[in-house]
């Protein structure tokens, strides 16, 4: 590694750490204070409230890293431009593009760190943070979720839901196990699907009911055996008052799953005959979001090498913030189009990267 590359990386690291630390500290303070009344109202101690905020730090680090790369790259190149260091480098016969290499290398290294955190630490920390947010803060302890299903405790029954579709407010693979006063199984109801009808009500269709009776051939007085199933042609109402928003809070979130877990989950959902478009889009979005680090490094270099960056550093930073904001807006729009099946999942996740790669490359190529 040349002296110029080491010098550039040292300056980049200094500004990157400063920017990330400043933003994360502001995030901790704002998020903690904004939820302080909820913590106290739910009987959660201040220490545990702070722990909830800290659990989200790995996720926020990953979300903010591309913007920090962009701003750090702009600041380093702008200061070198302002101090005429780039002029000296050019006069020595070295192209300014020579300094773009360590920018790309740094971005690639941070992208690998982001992907590693997304596969290991973030699913664990966000799972715990979401549990505190949706269960302990909202006191919805009657619901729990596995990797791909929901369990709900009603007054005299347990309800199992295999799949919840938040887009269409529908549920599938519903099993209702009713218990008698002795906590023995009275009957089971199996429903193929259900639809939300408003006011916390769900109507189930494709129903089969399986009663249970005491087993006469068993010495165990508590032994019960199932009878034959009975088909029910009329829709049946789910015996619990719950909204799709409350179900959505209990479902395992995509930020609680790694890329490999999302792929396995999407395959499982599709194998059971359900629509996994949302999970496919989020699965492809994970590596697509990591790749933006390289795009931001190239764009930051292109902006920092411009003449206006030498004259006004705040203007260069403002331009960088506008680029970052534009990326997040377009990325969100493309993901929404993927959720709505307007774009295929792969295209929805990578379209923004393609646009900004072309734009950043063109901007860098026209820089003198």
Task: Describe the structure in your own words.
The chain has helices at residues 3-34, 36-41, 46-55, 57-82, 85-91, 100-119, 121-136, 244-250, 259-271, 277-304, 307-311, 313-339, 345-365; strands at 143-145, 150-153, 157-165, 170-179, 185-198, 201-214, 224-226, 230-232, 236-237. By secondary structure, the chain is of the alpha+beta class. The chain has 2 domains: 3-133 and 273-365, no CATH class; 149-244. Strands 1, 2, 3, 4, 5, 6, 7, 8 and 9 form a 9-stranded antiparallel sheet that branches. The longest helix is centred in the N-terminal third of the chain and has 32 residues, at 3-34. The model is unreliable at 216-221 (pLDDT under 50).
Mean pLDDT: 86
The ordered H/E elements are HHHHHHHEEEEEEEEEHHHHHH
The proportion of residues forming helix, as a percent range, comes to 55-70%
Radius of gyration over C-alpha positions, nearest whole angstrom: 27 Å
Keywords summarizing the entry:
368 residues, alpha+beta, elongated
Topology, please?
Layout: H1 3-34, H2 36-41, H3 46-55, H4 57-82, H5 85-91, H6 100-119, H7 121-136, E1 143-145, E2 150-153, E3 157-165, E4 170-179, E5 185-198, E6 201-214, E7 224-226, E8 230-232, E9 236-237, H8 244-250, H9 259-271, H10 277-304, H11 307-311, H12 313-339, H13 345-365
Helix pairs in contact: 1-4, 1-6, 4-6, 4-10, 4-12, 6-10, 9-10, 10-12, 10-13, 12-13
């Amino acid at each position: 590694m040349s002296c110029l590359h080491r010098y550039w990386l040292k300056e980049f690291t200094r500004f990157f750490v400063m920017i990330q630390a400043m933003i994360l500290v502001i995030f901790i303070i704002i998020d903690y204070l904004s939820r302080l009344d909820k913590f106290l109202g739910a009987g959660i101690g201040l220490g545990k409230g702070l722990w909830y905020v800290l659990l989200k730090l790995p996720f926020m680090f990953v979300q903010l890293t591309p913007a920090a790369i962009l701003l750090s790259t702009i600041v380093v190149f702008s200061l070198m431009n302002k101090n005429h260091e780039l002029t000296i480098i050019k006069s020595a016969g070295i192209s300014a593009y020579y300094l773009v290499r360590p920018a790309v290398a740094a971005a690639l290294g941070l992208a690998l760190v982001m992907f590693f955190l997304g596969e290991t630490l973030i699913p664990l920390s966000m799972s715990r943070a979401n549990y505190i947010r949706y269960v302990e803060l909202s006191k919805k302890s009657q619901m729990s979720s596995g990797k791909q299903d929901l369990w709900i405790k009603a007054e005299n029954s347990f309800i199992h839901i295999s799949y919840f579709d938040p887009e269409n407010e529908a549920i599938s693979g519903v099993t209702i196990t009713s218990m008698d006063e002795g906590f023995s199984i009275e009957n089971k109801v199996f429903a193929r699907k259900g639809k939300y009808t408003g006011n916390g009500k769900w109507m189930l269709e494709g129903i089969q009911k399986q009663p249970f009776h005491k087993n006469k051939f068993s010495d165990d007085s508590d032994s019960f055996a199932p009878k034959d199933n009975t088909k029910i042609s009329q829709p049946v109402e789910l015996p619990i008052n719950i909204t799709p928003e409350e179900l959505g809070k209990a479902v395992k979130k995509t930020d609680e799953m790694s890329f490999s877990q999302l792929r396995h989950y999407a395959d499982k959902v599709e194998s059971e005959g359900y629509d996994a478009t949302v999970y496919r889009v989020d699965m492809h979005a994970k590596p697509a979001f990591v790749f933006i680090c390289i795009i931001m490094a190239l764009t930051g270099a292109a902006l920092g090498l411009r003449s206006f960056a030498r004259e006004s550093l705040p203007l260069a930073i403002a331009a960088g913030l506008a680029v970052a904001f534009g990326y997040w807006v377009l990325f969100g729009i493309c993901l929404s189009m993927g959720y709505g099946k307007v774009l295929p999942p792969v295209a929805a996740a990578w379209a923004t990267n393609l646009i900004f790669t072309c734009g950043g490359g063109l901007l860098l190529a026209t820089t003198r």
